[in-house]
Design brief:
Order of helices and strands: HHHHHHHHHHH
Number of strands: 0
Structural class: mainly alpha
Keywords: Antibiotic resistance, Cell membrane, Cell shape, Cell wall biogenesis/degradation, Hydrolase, Membrane, Peptidoglycan synthesis, Transmembrane, Transmembrane helix
Distance between the termini: 26 Å
Function: Catalyzes the dephosphorylation of undecaprenyl diphosphate (UPP). Confers resistance to bacitracin.
Main location: membrane
Helix content: over 70%
Oligomer: single chain
GO biological process, one term: peptidoglycan biosynthetic process
Number of domains: 1
Largest sheet: none
Catalytic activity: di-trans,octa-cis-undecaprenyl diphosphate + H2O = di-trans,octa-cis-undecaprenyl phosphate + phosphate + H(+)
Number of helices: 11
Strand content: under 5%
Radius of gyration: 18 Å
């Protein structure tokens, strides 16, 4: 992978990782249209770490407060809003971890196709648009175990390419009555352990493969994807309540059409 290709895909990854529009769909299209080869495992690791640094930096205050409250809850029976939210992030992560370990081979072999990608981009994009009608004024402190498990299993669906992790979790949370801002906040907090785990596993695979690594290209991609993702999170959190989810849903329908058209042209 040359530097220009890596930088373009890093920007695409940073823009789409936390928007509810499917980052995998956006990485497939440039490669298909421009004839680029797969970006490779090393690139995946780099942009995952960039995304992780972005979300941790943006929510650094929340993370410190949640971590301190969680640690205090271990030695006390008194729960606070922050300690409960910390536990909900842990509980909401478990379905994706368990199903990811069980179904990883199945997904890699059978579901990483353009037709699956286009279908999930379309179907879950439509659901995203409908979810806005159900969003109310519930906050993260109003979450219950049942609600968290529903959102957690929804997040596990994002193992299927094209679903969009942020899109499906925001959709589920909005259907359960959370406000769009609170649904987005919980979605981004849920992303931290998931992205951390994915980056760790991919790193182990990378070092196990023993391939030569172009550190200059990878560090540039990580930095650019991180900066782009950080700016994108800030924009989305400020604007989601004003513009809602429908524009993202419409965009996903158009993206799905482009994916289908590209897949059909390659038959």
């Amino acid at each position: 992978m040359d530097l220009l290709q890596a930088l373009i895909l890093a920007v695409v990854q940073g823009l789409t990782e936390f928007l509810p529009v499917s980052s995998s769909g956006h990485l497939v299209l440039p490669a298909a249209l421009l004839g680029w080869q797969d970006q490779g495992l090393a690139f995946d690791v780099a942009v995952h770490f960039g995304s992780l640094l972005a979300v941790v930096l943006y929510f650094r205050k929340d993370i410190v407060e949640l971590l301190m409250a969680w640690l205090k809850s271990l030695g006390s029976r008194q729960a606070t809003d922050n300690s409960r939210l910390a536990w909900w992030v842990i509980v909401g992560t478990l379905p994706a971890v368990i199903l990811g370990l069980l179904l990883d081979d199945l997904i890699e072999v059978h579901l990483r196709t353009a037709w699956v990608l286009g279908t999930t981009t379309l179907v879950f994009g439509i659901l995203l648009g409908f979810a806005q009608r159900f969003a109310a004024d519930k906050r993260c402190r109003d979450l219950t175990l049942a609600m968290v498990l529903i959102i957690g299993f929804a997040q596990a669906l994002a193992l299927v390419p094209g679903t969009s992790r942020s899109g499906i979790t925001i959709t589920a949370a909005a259907f359960l009555g959370l406000s769009l801002v609170e649904a987005s906040r919980f979605s981004f907090l849920l992303s931290i352990p998931v992205i951390s785990g994915a980056a760790l596993l991919k790193s182990l695979d990378l070092f196990g493969a023993g391939n030569a690594i172009d550190w200059a290209v990878l560090l540039s991609a990580m930095a650019l994807s991180g900066v782009t993702a950080f700016l994108c999170i800030g924009w989305f959190m400020r604007w989601v309540e004003r513009i809602g989810l429908v524009p993202f849903a419409v965009y996903r329908v158009l993206l799905a059409a482009a994916i289908f058209a590209t897949a059909y042209s390659q038959l």
